[in-house]
Amino acid sequence: MNLPASIGRISALLLRYVYLLRSSWPRIIEIAYWPTMQMIIWGFVSQYFSASSPELTTGGILISVVLVWDSLFRSHISYTLSFLEELWSRNLGNLFVSPLRPIELIVSLASISMMRTLIGMIPAALLAIPFFGVSVFEIGFPLLAFFLNLVFTGWAISQFVTGILIRYGLGAESLTWVLPFLIAPFSCIYYPLDTLPEWMRSVAEFIPTSYVFEGMRALLLDGVWRADLLYTAFFLNLFYFVVGVGVFFWAFNSARNQGILLQSGE
Prior knowledge:
mainly alpha, globular
């Protein structure tokens, strides 16, 4: 593979997504709007429950986990929406008659996903400081580990979704919104793992996000940095991401062989 040419194609596609984003200021506002609203609503809920449930709000834990969880949702939605825009505009076939490789599309989508996620999360995190006196940045390096793990989970989910969209078209579009919430009950975002019934705990052991939030609670409530939980989450994410990429390539080759790529769209 010609690496300079590959980097050039990735940069060109990323530039296309940046131009699409820059050309519409409502899109940029919307990206930051939803994480900010989540933070404000849950922040006031946190204040309301602080008297009766101090363990839930110690160190701004509820606001912190809301912000960190939203990074998964934003990374996934940003990835899949960029891909959906290619389907909505019937542009997927045009992309792949060029020398663009599927892996270069994946890298481009992941890059714009990270950019959009940061655009959404940073304003919300900054506004939590004057609104509620909570700064997630005080967590330091562990915050980066929590954030990157959840972004990685979002990308892993996106591989499955984009693969299904390539193979089955926009009829499967609803999976974009459904899958992140499917794992939410097992992720133990707002409650510890031992709250779950036994059968749900067995499922949660295979969900990387459950380890992220258990690690986050251990740090915020007990001041203990559980690196082992983050490593487990990372390797689970890596496994699911590799499987997801395999699904994407299978779907892409199947769609190409059947001529579906040129028929994608509404």
